[in-house]
Design goal:
60 residues; mainly beta; three-stranded antiparallel beta sheet; DNA-binding
Length: 60
DNA sequence: CTAATTAT
DNA sequence: ATAATTAG
């Protein structure tokens, strides 16, 4: 799932709230059916990669 | 602890 | 191979 929709996430490295497009998005579903969405991001400031929770209603 | 993904 | 990510 490659996305273009910007999301507001907190960059853990710079501790800044930023609106960026996730590089990759995937869903975690445990054996009990609980789902969460994770985005893989690259911080434009540090170039560091990080993962963050996405809003449940996020679409690419 | 589990799930999926991928950078390290 | 392991960390990181969330929530219950």
């Amino acid at each position: 799932m490659v996305c273009r929709t910007p999301v507001k996430v907190k960059d853990p490295t710079s501790h800044l709230e930023m609106v960026i497009v996730p590089e990759k998005v995937y869903v975690l579903r445990n054996h009990r059916g609980k789902e969460i969405k994770i985005g893989l991001f690259v911080s434009p400031r540090t170039g560091k990669k990080f993962r963050a929770l996405l809003p449940d209603a996020y679409q690419c």
